[in-house]
Amino acid sequence: STLSPSSAASDVYKRQLHSRLKIEDLAQSLHVSRDHLSAAFKKDRKISLHRYILDQKLQEAKHMLSHGMSINETSYTLCFCNESHFIQLFKKKYGMTPGEYVAGCSS
Question: Closest by alpha carbon to 17, among 97, 96, 74?
């Protein structure tokens, strides 16, 4: 049985969290249009593909930070465009900065 586009997309993305994978590239690798992939993903998962990707990266960031990786290195490794953008997204999702999260992990 073949995977649905949304299942295939999430599977590919989990294996490539540390790369700068674009939705367009993902759609092309699955032989579907970007719009088709995004719509199928949202229908199946009730979340946009962009939000899913961001959530996966931020979840991985928490793991990396809790295992001693610096904020800068985490931001770079997960291909955020810059460290301040990463901090802003992390704070929006978790209600604290990565620095505050790290401080909480070590206390």
Answer: 74
